[in-house]
């Protein structure tokens, strides 16, 4: 079907989002068309603000609007533990459960040689630099329970263990192939409590 050019561009833009196919993109575009002007302006401003105002924390690599981020700056956080996660959305998932009070380190992905992602493409070097601080006693590896997540956990454990720092892996309780982002707080809490040495 042929749509007017501005509508076609909006549909195309929505299709670039993950999980949005042509039908959903079309439905969203027509929904936006019906919105009051002020709601459309607020949506556009929110999209621009995300790109304009957010940056990456220079310490943990989480998404933030200030550097260092609120978690790294918080003097009440337990600096003896660092929880290593794949993406910033995983920090948000862990924080929702309110059971972990340590620090984080965002890798920016997982090892995936088939996709050309090796150790150099991840924030592993900066993690190892953070571990030079003798305050850190435990690194909790909370990568997703996928093949790549497990491979990344094993790789990190081999790098960190010689330093004498305890390395643990969150326990299963998360479904294999699942993402931290979609786990409920109880599942995440059980997985964190049941972590084990790697």
Automatic annotation (TrEMBL):
SUPFAM superfamilies cross-referenced by the UniProt entry: Recombination protein RecR (SSF111304)
| Keyword Zinc tagged | yes
Where would I find the C4-type zinc fingers in this protein? 57-72
Q: State the PROSITE patterns in the record.
A: RECR, TOPRIM
Keywords noted in UniProt? DNA damage, DNA recombination, DNA repair, Metal-binding, Zinc, Zinc-finger
InterPro entries associated with the record? DNA_Rcmb_RecR, Rcmb_RecR, Rcmb_RecR_Znf, TOPRIM_dom, TOPRIM_RecR
**Toprim domain span:** 80-175
Which Pfam families does this one have? Answer: RecR_C, RecR_HhH, RecR_ZnF, Toprim_4
* An example Gene Ontology molecular-function term: DNA binding
Reported function:
May play a role in DNA repair. It seems to be involved in an RecBC-independent recombinational process of DNA repair. It may act with RecF and RecO.
| HAMAP family, alphabetized | RecR
Protein name, as recorded: Recombination protein RecR
Q: Species name for this entry?
A: Hydrogenibacillus schlegelii
Gene encoding the protein:
recR
């Amino acid at each position: 079907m042929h749509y007017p050019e501005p509508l076609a561009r909006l549909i195309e833009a929505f299709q670039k989002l993950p999980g949005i196919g042509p039908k959903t993109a079309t439905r969203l575009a027509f929904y936006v068309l019906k919105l009051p002007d002020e709601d459309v302006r607020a949506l556009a401003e929110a999209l621009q603000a995300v790109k304009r105002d957010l940056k990456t924390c220079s310490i943990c690599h989480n998404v933030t609007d200030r550097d260092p981020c609120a978690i790294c700056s918080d003097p009440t956080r337990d600096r003896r533990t660092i929880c290593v996660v794949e993406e910033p959305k995983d920090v948000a998932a862990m924080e929702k459960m309110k059971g972990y009070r340590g620090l984080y380190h965002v890798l920016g992905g997982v090892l995936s040689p088939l996709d050309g992602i090796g150790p150099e493409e991840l924030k592993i070097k900066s993690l190892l630099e953070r571990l030079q601080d003798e305050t850190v006693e435990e690194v909790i590896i909370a990568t997703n329970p996928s093949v790549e997540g497990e491979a990344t956990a094993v790789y990190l454990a081999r790098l960190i263990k010689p330093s004498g720092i305890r390395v643990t892996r969150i326990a299963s309780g998360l479904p294999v192939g699942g993402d931290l982002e979609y786990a409920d707080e109880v599942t995440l809490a059980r997985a964190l409590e049941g972590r084990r040495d790697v």
